[in-house]
Amino acid sequence: MRKVYFDNAATTPLRSEVIDSMTHVLKTEFGNPSSTHEFGRSSKALIETARKQIAEILHVSAAEIIFTSGGTEADNLVINSCVKNLNVSRIISSKIEHHAVLHAIQDLQTSYGITVEYVNLDQSGAVDFAHLERLLADTTQKTLVSLMHINNEVGNILDLKHVAQLCKKYDSLFHSDTVQSIGHYPLDFTDIPIDFAAVAAHKFHGPKGVGFAFIRKNSGIKPMIFGGSQEKGLRAGTEPVHAIVGMVEALRISYQNLAQEKTYITDLKNYFKTSLSKEIPEIKFNGQCADNQNSSYTVLNVCLPVSAEKGKMLLFQLDLKGIACSKGSACQSGSNKGSHVLSEILSDEDLTKPSIRFSFSSFNTKDEIDYVVQTLKTFVNSGNTLEHQ
Question: Which of 179, 219, 171 is nearest to 199 (CA)?
């Protein structure tokens, strides 16, 4: 059976160079980086070199990069510490954030009684900046704004610099989940006065289980995990040297090839949009994903013109045809609930129809897109199942 992978927003395949770099470390650099002997010092040197390389890419100091197990931990570390240690009593966010942010905020609201407010969104899911500024201006409480750079389901891009400047204007802190953007877009945190960011390696062809938090120097953030003094005392636990080396190798290659791969993937996305519109004229594109200026070139979220009953088994049927995609965030796959993102921006009628997220990488091809488009066309124009070939 043919296999086609269009779920890169959930995770990406590892680059061969990343596997090679990790394998080398696993074979030769097994020392505990906290040990003072040569084996430990050698591992420690790899970690600090990786930290400096990441810092150079983001134009920050190495001390501002804290390695974590991924984006979820980085989000939780920052948001929790802002409330527990930085006297934040009010958080402004949106209802289409990743659950790593939304659930952390909801827990803090229950446990600490903080004020939580959600910025208005337009029908495409774009943030209402005028409303955000009113919220920022209308309080004396210490406030944290947490808004993601690129939405993981519909690909909407937030103007990070504008939000960061608004937060500075009103003396508020700004955290952003940049999991879907780091490795795909150049970000200069010297130019963008953001306070905190979260990153996951497996979104840019690196390994799972590793990421980092950008924490602006002298922020006052305190640890969430206690034990040793690793990661400037902010994240106890022996660092996974091989994973950190793999992450920085993936990040280095992503930015080295950024212009070329962005052009290639954008062309794929445009070809997909055009082909879908031609073969399924009533198809709709959710959020701002059809607008290349305001959405990520890696994500396309579509609403198919079929009934709710027919759409129930769509992902299963696509899986039988070897096509990997998703109805939303992979982190929700165990839930029976629909997408919380789409529920905020789609009409009641469109919410009854099946929506699917396709997400791309440079590993994809137009031939794969042709296969997916024809499979979807067959499904839309046929009964409730696809003939298994």
Answer: 179
* CA–CA gap between residue 107 and residue 105 (Å, rounded): 5
| Phi, psi (deg, nearest 5) at residue 156 | -55, 135
Question: Of 256, 272, 287, which one is at a domain's C-terminal end?
Answer: 256
Q: Given 167, 289, 325, 331, which residue is catalytic?
A: 331
Minimal CA–CA distance to 33: which of 22, 45, 24, 49? 45
Confidence of residue 389 (pLDDT cuts 50, 70, 90): very low
Residue 264, classified by CB atoms within 10 Å of its CB into exposed (0-12), middle (13-18) or buried (19+), is middle
Mean pLDDT on 213-230: 96
Q: Could you confirm whether 289 is annotated as catalytic?
A: no
Alpha helices in the chain (DSSP H): 16-28, 38-58, 71-85, 99-112, 129-137, 160-169, 241-256, 258-279, 308-311, 314-320, 340-345, 348-351, 366-381
Task: Report the sign of the C-alpha dihedral through residues 108, 342, 199, 28, in that order.
Answer: positive
- pLDDT tops 50 at residue 388: no
Closest by CA to 147, choosing from 126, 174, 165, is 174
**286 and 214 belong to one structural domain:** no
**Do 267 and 242 share a structural domain?**
no
Q: Which residue has the tokens 């804290």?
A: 66
pLDDT digits over 250-277, tens only?
999 999 999 999 999 999 999 999 999 9
CB atoms within 10 A of CB 163: 25
Contact criterion met (CB below 8 Å) for 329 and 98: yes
pLDDT in tens, 84-122: 999 999 999 999 999 999 999 999 999 999 999 999 999
Of 205, 223, 256, the residue at which a domain comes to its end is 256
141-168, pLDDT tens digit by residue?
999 999 999 999 999 999 999 999 999 9
CATH number of residue 236's parent domain: 3.40.640.10
pLDDT over 90 (residue 6): yes
Say if 388 falls within a structural domain.
Answer: no
Instruction: Compute the average pLDDT of residues 362-378.
Output: 97
* 340 found inside a domain: yes
Helix or strand (DSSP H, E) at 211: strand 211-215
